[in-house]
Amino acid sequence: MKNVKLIIEYDGTNFSGWQMQPNARTVQEEIEKGLKKIIKKEVKINGSGRTDAGVHALGQVANFKETFSIPIQKIPLALNAMIPEDISIKEAIEVPENFHARYHAKGKRYIYKIYNGQLRSALLKNHAYFTSYTLNVEKMKKATAYFIGEHDFKAFMASRTSIKNTVRTIQDIRLYEQEELLILDIKGNGFLYNMVRIMTGTLVDIGRGRIDEKDLPNIIKSCSRESAGHTAPPQGLYLAEVYY
Amino acid sequence: MKNVKLIIEYDGTNFSGWQMQPNARTVQEEIEKGLKKIIKKEVKINGSGRTDAGVHALGQVANFKETFSIPIQKIPLALNAMIPEDISIKEAIEVPENFHARYHAKGKRYIYKIYNGQLRSALLKNHAYFTSYTLNVEKMKKATAYFIGEHDFKAFMASRTSIKNTVRTIQDIRLYEQEELLILDIKGNGFLYNMVRIMTGTLVDIGRGRIDEKDLPNIIKSCSRESAGHTAPPQGLYLAEVYY
Asked: Where along the chain is substrate bound (chains A, B) (predicted)?
């Protein structure tokens, strides 16, 4: 029995997210169907975590345990031939027997892309968040510093979620301009449901002057979803890396 | 009666190209339907030229002549609200009465994006040409120089096309790497049908060693489609600018 770690890229546009669910096209299901074709067995894969409908991944991680004859290094090409083109298996490596993509994840890196122009971009429609508000990028950059470190991020969690421990550590956060895009690059030991999208929405609200960047520490302390900004839409979000 | 020049971005993925045709979704038709809604008249727009199914545009140009009351500078936002999100009108300006987007075009600039990796990219599936062959980029760069200037480009025209004058001038051509992409940026006074895609395919064939870059002048001189390389697929091609 081998334990295999997969690194997976996908375009979330036409998926109802990562996780298997009835009557919905999901990334997990497509990969499991593909694995069945190449190793002739029903395989269940463990993802590092869910992604929502429309959210993309550059480096989602999943693992599965099974006995099979195909050499591991041939899995990416063989599996890609069996799954839709909006998924690409970028790497497959053997890992120790006890490795679990979700339980052993030590951190994640996300990227969020904002297209800030006067008129929408047709080409970025499914791959960035378009906003035509004039954004004060310097204020947004300053504000990112308040997120660094260990905080209770309850104010940045979708309100319908129930979870006990809402303390997370943001290890690194960068906001930079790249051609016509504004890119948020954020690394942490874990993220609450919708956390990156609410952090991004709050930064956009700061950029357009609806929230004062100096209020951000109080918003964090409030632990109240209502005090934070809006939830930025899914299509700008990319799960970039999972750390172990 | 005003003559209006539109600058148009579109994602060609879900279009059967630019030009109106029966039973097909085309960019021209969507824009004409949108114009009818905002100016309450049947309007025919003249594009600078066709683009094929799957080909994108950053700066397609079209014009139309009509009498209407909406201020011209409000057309992009008003029209974008009426047309699908995979098209975006980026600019609308009034031009002299005799301006015609096709007849008066003095040149065009195209961009072609190649994704050269060992495994395909899910996110670039509809927006770049994936090839896993090892490419000698230096040879490809050297080869581009042979295209510069005035040549009979008949060898780089889809063979089913009939056209008398196949002489065109390439004014500028650059091949460069940008992150994981190899980008061809090419400017000329005009392009034959499939010309950029055949030039790109020939450069890829040079990069992978199927064609010797020193043979390129002879391939051009041959005026024979068979001697040039393959036709690169539509999804890597972007009409970037039209010059007047």
From this structure: 110
Write the ipTM. 0.93
- Torsion-angle region of A183 (φ positive above 0: left; ψ -120 to 50: alpha; else: beta): beta
Question: Quick one: residue A144, left, alpha or beta (phi over 0 = left, psi -120 to 50 = alpha)?
Answer: alpha
Please tell me the distance from the alpha carbon of residue B78 to that of residue A3, in angstroms, as a whole number.
55
Element at A152 (helix H, strand E): strand A149-152
3-state SS assignment for residue B237: strand
User: Cα(A27)–Cα(A8) distance, rounded to whole angstroms?
Assistant: 10
Q: What residue ranges in B50-135 does DSSP mark as E strands?
A: 56-66, 87-95, 107-116, 129-131
Strand duo A56-66 + A149-152: pairing: unpaired
Residues of B in contact with A79 (CB under 8 A): none
What does the alpha-carbon distance between residue B12 and residue B126 come to, in Å, rounded to a whole number? 9
Q: Is A212 helix (H, G, I), strand (E, B) or coil?
A: coil
CB contact under 8 A, A88 and B127: no
User: What residue ranges define each of the domains in chain A, with the CATH number in brackets?
Assistant: 2-95 (3.30.70.580), 107-243 (3.30.70.660)
Q: How far apart are CA A187 and CA A106, in angstroms?
A: 11
Q: Which of these, B119, B138, B116, B137, lies nearest to B128 by C-alpha position?
A: B116
CB A56 within 8 A of CB A127: yes
Q: What is the spatial distance between Cα B65 and Cα B14, in angstroms, rounded to a whole number?
A: 28
Contacts of A20 (CB under 8 A, 6+ apart): A26, A28, A29, A32
Of all residues in chain A, the one with the smallest CA distance to B121 is A88
Is the backbone of residue A23 left (phi > 0), alpha (psi -120 to 50) or beta? left
Catalytic member of A11, A52, A152, A172: A52
Quote the CA–CA distance of B195 and B91 in Å, as a whole number: 28
The shortest CB-CB distance from A122 to any of B11, B119, B123 is to: B11
Query: Euclidean distance between the first and final Cα of chain B, in Å?
Result: 22
Q: Pick from B87, B122, B127: which is nearest to A88 by CB? A: B122
Residue A149 contacts residue A109 (beta carbons within 8 Å): no
Q: Are B232 and B200 contacting, i.e. CB atoms less than 8 angstroms apart? A: yes
Nearest residue to A156 (alpha-carbon basis) of A133, A131, A186: A186
Return the percent helix, strand and coil in chain B, to nearest 5.
30, 30, 40
In this prediction, residue A100 has a pLDDT band, given cuts at 50, 70 and 90, of: very high
- Could you read off the pLDDT of B20-79 as tens digits, one per residue? 888 899 999 999 999 999 999 999 999 999 999 999 999 999 999 999 999 999 999 999
